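2024-03-11 09:14:02 DEBUG pipeline.ingest accepted 1 chain
2024-03-11 09:14:02 DEBUG pipeline.ingest length=177
2024-03-11 09:14:03 DEBUG pipeline.predict start
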Amino acid sequence: MKKPTFFMMHGDFGSGKSTFAQNLAGEIDATWLRSDKIRAEMRAERQAPLTAADEELVFDSMNQAAFQALSEDRSVIYDATWNYPSFRWDTRAATADRLGVPAVIIWLQTPLAECIRRAADRRHDEYAVSIGAAKVTANAAELINPASDELYVAIDGMKTFAEQYAQFTDQLEKVLS
């Protein structure tokens, strides 16, 4: 990739956002910013659950790091759950829009039953916490998917990374042209 791009991961809990983001960051040499990691570090530092103010700090930190990386001509993969379009717009405005960098949503589409299965058992992930079926289902009901006026690529969360990467590159070329 020649021009930096701001990628925002989107999808249900357990859809495969972080797995895809990690693999993609290595493939395209992008900065991977992960909300789960920042939350885990804050919980360990405070030795207490995070407050609403802490959640704001998580995203402020991510926005600053994203702006810095984009300023240095590095693409950024912003790994978080985006329930509402207003969150996406505010984050994009604080980062990519300020620099005139394209912002593209990477939408991981995974069946809810698979998301529930994955979210319940996250022992392989040192930063993510396991989430029960009720919370995954409730979040899925609130999740507002990208609108037709937003730039996005849709990725099948059940495919291998090689297959997902092929989907990504094919769609990205069309989205950015």
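2024-03-11 09:14:41 DEBUG pipeline.report The first helix runs from residue 17 to 28.
2024-03-11 09:14:41 DEBUG pipeline.predict end
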